[in-house]
Design goal:
Layout lengths: L1 H37 L7 H17 L1 H33 L8 H14 L14 H17 L3 H11 L2 H30 L5 H42 L11 H11 L5
Keywords: Membrane, Transmembrane, Transmembrane helix
Protein name: Vegetative cell wall protein gp1
Amino acid sequence: MLTGVLAELNRHVNSRWFTAVLLPGLLLVAVAVAGRHLGHEGALSADELRVWAEAVWRGWRREPSGAAVDVGLALLAAGVVGALASELGVAVEWVWLSAGPSGGGRRRRRAVRAAERAGVATVAAYLPQRRTWMSDRIRLVEARTRAQYWFDASTAWPRLWLLLGDEARRPVISARAAFADAVSLAGWGFLYALVGIVWWPALVVGACVFLTGWRRARTGLDDLATLIESAVDVHHRALAEALGVTLGADGVGAAEGARIDDMLRKGGA
């Protein structure tokens, strides 16, 4: 049985690597090679591209060994750029989720004006405070959890995750994967923009790919934050029970929240 499970897992890993790394990498390599041949002046010349492609094909037919070498190099390059896109995605995610010491001033002013127009009182802790909307969206989960249940969500989440069943975990995992795919897409956008050095249309493609990744990342992160907050709302009593914290009729109050925090932080600050 274990062998079958490992084989199935390996199949899924290989499938994801093929669709998420190799194929996009091959496309980028093809665009870079063709773009380098066309250059800026003939960037949109379909006839020149067709003539060049036919010449390459004839060369491969004359020397199959050369074709094999070219294909091997293309696969190697595709794997390298795929790994690079993933690393760039990690860097982009760090920037988008960076918890800077200040920021969000413009968004904070807009939020205050919107609240005033709606006749709604503002809560200082819920107003934008960080440099990016995505970072603030994650911070809002922490602020709302602290305000309602008096404990730190970031400290409690790993323990709460252990209490969730598969049905509750599945949408969270899907939302996290969607966000990861989006930031990886933004990384591909940067790589296409680099190709724009030799072929200007790649700059347009790179900008479109990056903006698409950014838009999907906002949607994915919003879904993820909503699901995390929902899990805290539904399962915070189970967390308190698992930790041996007795709750009254009103649920988690200041004293219970402080005790949960103290237990999770092992008495540390």
